Amino acid sequence: MTLKEILRSAHLDPVEILGDAVVSSITLDSRACKAGSLFVCMPQMSRESESFLPDAVGRGASSALVHSREGMELAKKLGIAALLSPHVGVAFHDTAWKLCDAFYNHPTRNMKVVGVTGTNGKTTTAWLLRDMLLASGLKAGYLGTLGFQMPGEKRELQNTTPMAVELYALLTEARDRGVEALTLEVSSHALAQHRADGVEFDAAVFTNLTQDHLDFHHTMDDYEAAKWRLFSDLPSIGTKRFQSAFNMEDATGRAWSRRTDGVAKSPLRYGVHPKDQPLDIVLEPSSVRVDSIEARLNGIPTTIPLGGNYNVQNAASAAAGMMALGYETSQIAQLLSQVSPVPGRFEAVANDKGLGILIDYAHTPDALTKLLDSVHELTTARVITVFGCGGDRDRTKRPLMAKAATEQSDLTVVTSDNPRTEDPSEIIDEVMSGVSSERASIAIVDRREAIAYAVKSANPGDVVVIAGKGHETYQIIGHKKFHLDDRELVQEALN
Fold first, then answer.
1. Could you tell me the CA-to-CA distances from 430 to 107, 211, 391 in Å, in that order?
2. Under the phi-then-psi rule, with left for phi > 0, alpha for psi from -120 to 50, and beta for the rest, what region is 404?
3. Which end of the chain has the least Cβ crowding within 10 Å, N or C?
4. Which residues contact 341 (CB under 8 A, 6 or more apart)?
5. 220 vs 212, 369, 443, CA distance in Å?
6. Coil, strand, or helix at residue 320?
7. Closest by Cα among 345, 350, 419, 415 to 384
8. Is 342 part of any domain?
9. Which residues pair with 387 in a beta bridge?
10. DSSP string of 31-80?
């Protein structure tokens, strides 16, 4: 297609267009440009993306999407076609996704797509949904915090939900390789920046809403508004008959279940404790262990190979997602028994010391509280918790994390997470301001030393909880990633 043909297909009317060219690919990375590439100069905080135009053209780019008059002048000087879409609000992001959707010929239109959003539980819910779809016989994929996964392949991603240009390329790859169903974690950042707009969702699941990402959204109202877009704006763009599913254990879920104007179908309501409210999906546990859950799904017995009480809620979310896709309750109950544990989520580390050691991704006050609640339901021994808070992220949650940890731990070890460009000691000082003085706590900046201290402080029967990084195998210091895996650090300490 030529640039002007893509514009017509996308029903776009840019502020300005310079020339025309055949487009062979679309990319954000000048290093990935080849003959005929459309280079998208995505606005950045750290560096002016339009400064990469000469490199892109040198590698074969035939056109560019720019966001400034200077960018247009540079494109003209370099002799390539260009579109101007100023970086005002989400205008540039809207132009980017519309170009991609048209160029790739609507990659999700003939694929089952279920989105999952919420503060906690997105990854586990989306993972379980993928497993259930695979078990049902579909060629299914997953895209989210744990990367991009298709049968037989796994790839890491920089963001939970990539920028539209990368996202649409991945969706197209999935379609072209025969993926029939995809589960997609949809982050609040992505929703606010219109990264996933144009993706045609068959269904979406809302897990919960608690404090997180206020460094980006600034207020809880803005955070909630971003999440709500998955159930309002995005379905209105697509051609499918959309089905929503809301967690009625959560106040926002209850409110949203009543706020369904413009949604084609009445929402599904799900939960663990029916109370006095009518629910479409009820998952009632009868026995919860470290590695399994015995429960009844709308009265039908099932055994779920996941541990911890808070995974009951995640399993309920996944069951609701399957019902939203049209599966029957009896089939969902059977499929729940075939899921696999999620890496870094309530992940037990086997050892011969008689210790319970769990690694989990919990990195919000609510997630940490629920995690420790689940641990206490499984043991009467001491609980030792190791956690930290990431740098360049919501600072207001730091003392709240400390409060959540120390109120439910016999010993809390505060350490580094991903400090990024902040001083780790200063982050820990802010965390320690929320520590309960009635419980034992210690600050150890080095994560390796902190985990070793926690493991060596534990007695047989105690449970050591290492929270915050879960599946991650790196630590971000400054702008660089260094190898660091909590599992390996635990083994070092055990040895």
1. 45, 17, 11
2. alpha
3. C
4. 291, 305, 306, 307, 347
5. 8, 19, 30
6. helix
7. 415
8. no
9. 414
10. GG--TTEEEE----SSS-GGGGHHHHHHTT--EEEESSHHHHHHHHHHT-
> What is the reported pLDDT for 160?
84
Of 170, 219, 169, 210, the C-alpha closest to 192 is 219
- 383 strand-pairing partners: 463
Same domain, 178 and 321: yes
206 in Cβ contact with 252 (< 8 Å): yes
- One-letter amino acid of 11: H
Q: Which of 43-57, 87-101, 214-228 has the highest mean pLDDT?
A: 87-101
Give the side-chain half-sphere CA count within 13 A for 204: 30
Q: For residues 161 and 164, give the distance between their C-alpha atoms in angstroms, rounded to a whole number.
A: 9
* Secondary structure class of 213 (helix, strand, coil): coil
Alpha-carbon span 235 to 248, nearest angstrom: 21
- C-alpha–C-alpha distance, residues 403 and 412, integer Å: 10
Same domain flag for 189 and 256: yes
Q: Which residues pair with 358 in a beta bridge?
A: 348, 465
CATH number reported for the structural domain that contains residue 73 in this entry: 3.40.1390.10
Query: Cβ distance 64 to 83 under 8 Å?
Result: yes
DSSP codes joined into one string, 433-491: TT--TTSEEEE-SSHHHHHHHHHHH--TT-EEEEES-TT--EEEETTEEEE--HHHHHH
Enter the tokens of residue 272. 């663990």
Amino acid at 140: A
Number of H helices, E strands in the chain: 18, 24
Highest mean pLDDT among 247-261, 266-280, 321-335: 321-335
Helix (H, G, I), strand (E, B) or coil at 257: helix
What residue has token string 């920028």?
163
Mean pLDDT calculated for residue range 375-397 = 94
The C-alpha atoms of residue 64 and residue 77 are separated, in whole angstroms, by 13
What residue numbers bound the domain in which 142 lies?
112-336
Domain annotation covers residue 341 = no
DSSP-assigned letter for residue 341: P
CATH number (domain holding residue 321): 3.40.1190.10
DSSP annotation of 121 reads S
Which position has the token pair 């990024």?
420
- Ranges of beta strands (E only) in 280-405 are 281-288, 293-297, 300-304, 347-348, 356-360, 383-387
In total, how many domains does the chain have? 3
Residue 212, pLDDT score: 62
Task: Give the integer Cα–Cα distance in Å for 40 and 83.
Answer: 10
